[in-house]
Amino acid sequence: MEGSRDPYGENMPSYFQLLTDVKWGAEQNLREWAPNTLSSWPSEFIHSLVKYGHLTWIDICLIVALAVLWTILRYTATRLCLIPLGQWLQLTPHNMNVKFPESTWKCFFYSMTWSYECYVVLWSGHTDFFQKPLTIWTDWMPSVPVPAEIYWLYMIQLSFYVHCIYACLYMDHWRKDTLVMLFHHLLTLALVGVSYATRFHKIGVLVLFCHDINDICLEFTKSNVYLKDRGHKYHALNDHMATAGFFSFAVTWFVFRLYWYPLKVLHTTGYGSMLYSPQPKMPFYFFFNILLWILQLLNVYWFMFIVKFLYKVATGQMDTVEDLRENEVADKYSNIGTKDGSKAAGDHVNNGTSIRRSKRLAKQD
Fold this sequence. Notes:
This protein is mostly helical. 73% of the residues lie in helices and 1% in strands. The chain has helices at residues 15-33, 36-39, 41-52, 57-89, 93-123, 148-170, 178-197, 201-227, 236-275, 285-314, 327-334, 341-350, 355-364; strands at residues 229-230, 233-234.
């Protein structure tokens, strides 16, 4: 197994090789820790967390303070900037007060954080674990210091996900997958927090890098969806930008979350951690790998929304980009093909004068 490929994983494994290697890594870990660890897993996990974990009260206070700061900044930006901007653009009331401010705030924040992640992972010259992800484990030690550039990335991300849990419940628009999104935030907070405390920060940076770019594309697309119908007029530019944003979202989702994430992140955590770690026993192996694979299942779940949208476009049920996770949008299209829903669908798409065309005619009049 060890000599089957290049020693530090410069070549991408196949999906089949991923499963084979992860199976080997899991078996190795079981041989190292079984049988008494499995029989006393909760207490052993807590003991390992105390032994290997490094999270100071300064870190905790900084995370809480930044989470409060993000919440205050969002409330302030929404009230003083984004709602007035929506009024000036003549958005519909709900888009103006809730949806547009939410998407604009998230698009701006994720753009800033992902740009910084690109600097850390690709441009700083201090790391090569994206190109060679198996090298993550060659120098891992429980007390290894966290570089300052990665430390601040962790503080910002941990505090933002604390803020996101609050925002998901009290600030964001309620959607079909809101509870799934809340679970995602809790899962990510646990992964990022424990990875920082146990000094698995390199793998944490890769996880963030593979996920945040999709949020930029998603929120950019949604912002333009809300902007295309404003002032009782149809704006073709925003419609085209929403379409371009959606296809960028679909492509980056597949490349980053369904290709690079499993073949770089899941491969190195499941296989490389057992093969190249200088430690005789790798702590938290199953904790991290189980959570990371659950995250991958969520990625596949959300990818189904993308596939569903593409199917509706291909079958003529939709002719414009909309968020199928929103209850009002889902309800509108769920009736397509039924006796009562055919008229509504026809009014929107198939009656010879779509909403977009009728708005263009109204503008000409």
